[in-house]
Amino acid sequence: MEVNDALVQQLADLARLEFNEQEKTAIRGDLQRMITFVEKLNELDTTHVKPLLHLTADYNVFREDAVKTGITREEGLQNAPAATPEYFEVPKVIKK
Asked: Are 83 and 89 in contact (CB under 8 A)?
């Protein structure tokens, strides 16, 4: 697969990024090297290789479920920059 300016621009548009010409040249080279590497890997015969499902031999390792002491609501809110007696106060972020 050949990486050209149109592909780099399409990827930039999808990612909502803007690049100058020097950055586009560097990205085009990086993408071409990645694609070449993947194409090289596709040349390997993997018919008898089992898929790797987990990176370690550990499977479903869970800690014991234990009750731990927590902090009270008052302790949790005491260092808050703004709070009511029950909740943190945060700035409104949704506008109508």
From this structure: yes
Write out pLDDT tens, residues 53-90. Answer: 777 777 777 888 888 888 988 898 988 999 888 889 98
Is pTM, for the whole model, over 0.90? Answer: no
Give yes or no for a contact between 3 and 35, defined as CB atoms under 8 angstroms apart: yes
In whole angstroms, give the CA distance from residue 90 to residue 96.
Answer: 17
d(CA 83, CA 94): 19
The rounded distance, in Å, linking the Cα atoms of 24 and 6 is 10
- Per DSSP (E only), the strands in 1-96 are none
